[in-house]
Structure formats: structure tokens, C-alpha cells
Amino acid sequence: MKLVSANVNGIRAAARRGGVEWLIAQEADVIALQEVRATDDQLRAALGPLADWNLLHSPSEVRAGHAGVALLSRWPIEPTGALGESDDQGRWIAGVTDGLEVASVYVHTGQAGTTAQDEKHRFLAAMGKWMEQRPGAVICGDLNVAHREVDIKNWKGNIGKAGFLESERAYLDEWYGRLGWVDLGRRFGGEGPGPYTWWSWRGKAFDNDAGWRIDCVLAGPGVADRCRGFAVGRAATYAERWSDHAAVVSEFVS
Asked: Which of 51, 57, 210, 250 could form a disulfide with 47 if both were Cys (CB 3.0 to 4.6 A apart)?
């Protein structure tokens, strides 16, 4: 199974920039999307030939044009339910396809010292509970948390800020420690720094590789050793970018 995960930063804008053509060229079996920002009809229209695939989509029901996650597969997908009590924010969708449970996640950005940060912590805690119950699953998506200093270029400048708070990083410590989940980007990417997956559109962040590694594929202890490869689909040049995120690509064997 070849699995591609991408924060598209709006599927309609990504499609106009060539993102759908890029996804098609990967010859993936399963595609996880985040920040779709579209209705069901808008998503299918933007996907072009991919609209014929089996599709699960969770748009935001509380803020139109915001968030939204989706799963596409060449095979049938059986949805496996919400994360926690609510799935109306378009941040989580999961299903079983070809015998593997896959989730697409878009974690809140958060803001230190606000209720938005409290909500982010609750979401990360709910993810941990889900992961503990599903050691044979895979999670793909935008965590909006850089785990360690090697996962963010300007880590000193982001101490105390959302995305690099010790309280956020502690959840990832638990996932990769006590729960035994594996961050495939780090396993295959070495000790770092990077490889980064998000760069601001502004300034020279992309050209200087001043990024964050927040787009991940996480594998439960029961399935991690089935992964045979992982890569970051970084655009060759700024002009070729179709999102402010790079897609991540992983391959699993049966």
C-alpha cells in the first residue's frame, strides 16, 4: 500500500496550482487530505479523476471554509467513527481500507494561554486514547506540533509558543514512548534536523529551508515494521509549490 498524506491548504486552490496532478502522479493507493476547506460537491469537483475513488470526507460544520479532512482509497473504505464526543470541526476521519485502519487528522493550531489551546490539548489527549486502543492503525496528517528541536529550524524563537509548547510535546512523548507508536518520518529521516514539511509563504522561508516538521505518518506498534519507505514530497522550487505544506509518502507491505 502506497499512502500519501497532504495538507492541501484548500483543495480548490491546490488544484489550481497543480496539486491534484501531483497527487495523481504519485500512483498512490490511499490518500489522506487535511485542510480541505470545501463542501462534498466542491471537493469532488476539485479532485478531477480522483473523484471516482472511494471517499470519506469530514468538513467543518461549525465554520464553513475551514479545516476539513478526507480519505480516498482505490479500495472500499469502512468508516470507524469519530474521535471522542464530536467530529463537527472537520479535524478527524478514520476508516478501514484493504485491512488497514487509517486516520487523517488536522490538529488545531492553538494559541498559548487561550481556550483554543485548551481545545488543542483535549484533542491531543483524545488522540492518545484512540491510539492506545488501536495498535494496528496508522495516523496521517498535520499535527501542528514540532516534537523536538530538530523538528523546527527556529526552535529558540518558538519557545513558549503554540506548536512548540512543552505541554504539547509531552503528548508526543507518550505516544512514542509508553504507547509504542512510531513516527515514520523520524525513523526513515534520521536524526535531523528536518526534513521539514511546512514553510511560510512569506519571505525566504522555503528557499532557506526555515521550516517545521509537523506533517507526519504515525504507525502503531502492530504495523510500524510493515513500513518499507518514507519520503517528503518537497517541491523543487518555490514556484512549484501547490501548498505551504509538503506531502509525505509512505509505503507498507502486507
From this structure: 51
Query: By the 8 A CB rule, do 137 and 131 touch?
Result: yes
Complete domains list, the chain, with CATH: 2-252 (3.60.10.10)
Q: Cα-flanking dihedrals φ and ψ of residue 165, to 5°?
A: -75, 145
Say how far apart CA 253 and CA 235 lie, in whole Å.
27
Q: Which helix (H) or strand (E) holds 104?
A: strand 100-106
- Calpha distance 219→245 (Å, rounded): 21
CA-CA distance, 35 to 162, in Å (whole number)?
18
Phi, psi of 59 (to 5 degrees): -80, 160
Is 215 catalytic? The answer is no
Of 177, 94, 180, give the one whose Cα is nearest residue 138. Answer: 94
| Per-residue model confidence as pLDDT tens digits over 89-98 | 999 999 999 9
**pTM score, whole prediction:** 0.96
In this structure, are residues 28 and 4 in contact, taking their beta carbons and an 8 Å threshold?
yes
Q: Please identify which of the residues 106, 183, 196, 244 carries the catalytic annotation.
A: 106
Residue 86 has pLDDT above 70, yes or no: no
Mean pLDDT of the chain: 96
Q: Indicate which residue of 40, 52, 142, 196 is catalytic.
A: 142
H or E, element range at 185: helix 184-189
3-class DSSP state of 42: helix
Q: Which of 68, 66, 82, 86 is CA-nearest to residue 32?
A: 68
Q: Which of 235, 251, 231, 197 is nearest to 29 (CA)?
A: 251
Say whether 196 is catalytic.
no
